[in-house]
Amino acid sequence: MECDSEIGGSACCQRAAVRRTRSAAWLVATCCFCCFWWAAVTGQALEPKELHTDRDAFTPSVYTIVPGRVLNEMSHVYIENREGKPTNNYPEYICRIGATERLEWRLGVNYSVGSQGNVVTSVEAGELPIDGGTLYESNFLYGFKFVTSEQNGLIPQSCFIMEATTPMYGQEFGTEPVATVAFGWEFPAKWRVDTALRYAYAEADTNWFSRWGPSVVLRLPMTERWEIHAEYFGTFTQGLLDDVNRPFFSPGTHIVISRNVELGLRVGWGLSEDAANFFSDAGLAIRY
C-alpha cells in the first residue's frame, strides 16, 4: 500500500516498520526454538544441567556462582509498545563472579533506546509517559547476591540481591537502588517453582518513586539439557502522578549447548493497557 500524504505516509510507514520488526522477531524466535529442539533431542546428556542464569526469566535464579567461576550473561530484548516507538535493550550484560559458597559479585551494563519504561527483564529502565517521550539510556550495574537459605522440606532455597544502577547517559542521572528477594522449591522430576519480589527506588522527570516487581515461574525440564518455563510477572509503580500497572505472561525456554554455554529465549504479552503488546528476549550465557 502506498503512503500518499505526509502525515498519513508517516503513520503508514511507522506501522509497516512495526510489522516488519514484529515479523523479524517471530522469525528469530522460531529459528531459535527449532535449534533448541534439534540440540535437545540429538545431544548427549550434560552435567551439570543448569548454569543457573538470571537472564532466562524475569525471576532470577536462587543460586549463586561457584567460587572461582565467572558467568557472563547477555541478551537482546525487543519490546513492542502500545504507543510510540518500539524499545530495544542490549547487551543487557551482567558478569557474575563467584566469591564464596553463598556470595557472588555482580557487574553489568545496558543500553535502552525507544519509548516508555516497560521493564521485562532484571534490567531497570527509565519511566516515561505512556503517550509520549523517547528513551535513550545507558546504565552501569553493580551489586551482589547472597544465598540466605537452602531448601529443607518446605523451607525454600532463597537469596537476596542488592544492586544499584548508575546512568552513564540519559535524562535521569540519579543512582537507583534495586533490592530483590527470591525463593525456590525443587520438586520430584526436577521441576521447580521460583518466586521473587523486586523493589526499585527510581527517578522520574519530576520526582522519585517506587517500582515493585512481583513474579512467579514454573520451570519444567524436558531433557537433561532442555528446559521450558511459564511465568507471570509485572511492574507496578507507586508515587507517580499517574501510576502504571504492567503485568505480563511469558513462556520461555533455554538449552545448555555445552558444559559452559547456554542459550535462552522468551517471549511475552502484556495483560493490561499500560503494558507493552509483546516482547521477545534472546540471550546467551558463557561460563569460565
Order of helices and strands: HEEEEEEEEEEEE
Content of β-strand = over 45%
The appropriate CATH architecture is: Beta Barrel
CATH superfamily: monomeric porin ompg
Task: Please state the structural category.
Answer: mainly beta
Q: What gap, in angstroms, lies between the N and C termini?
A: 51 Å
| Rg calc | 19 Å
Give me the number of helical elements. 1
Low-confidence stretches are: 1-8, 39-46
Number of domains: 1
- What's the CATH first level? Mainly Beta
Helix content: 10-25%
**Spatial order of the strands in the main sheet?**
1-2-3-4-5-6-7-8-9-10-11-12
Q: Layout of SSEs?
A:
Elements: H1 6-42, E1 70-80, E2 87-98, E3 103-114, E4 135-149, E5 157-169, E6 176-186, E7 192-203, E8 208-221, E9 226-238, E10 245-258, E11 261-270, E12 278-287
Antiparallel strand pairs: 1-2, 1-12, 2-3, 3-4, 4-5, 5-6, 6-7, 7-8, 8-9, 9-10, 10-11, 11-12
Describe what you observe in this structure.
This protein is mainly beta and 288 residues long. A hairpin with a 7-residue loop joins strand 4 and strand 5. The N terminus is likely disordered. The termini are far apart. It has a 12-stranded antiparallel barrel with strand order 1-2-3-4-5-6-7-8-9-10-11-12. The chain has 1 helix and 12 strands. The protein has a single domain, classed as Porin (Beta Barrel).
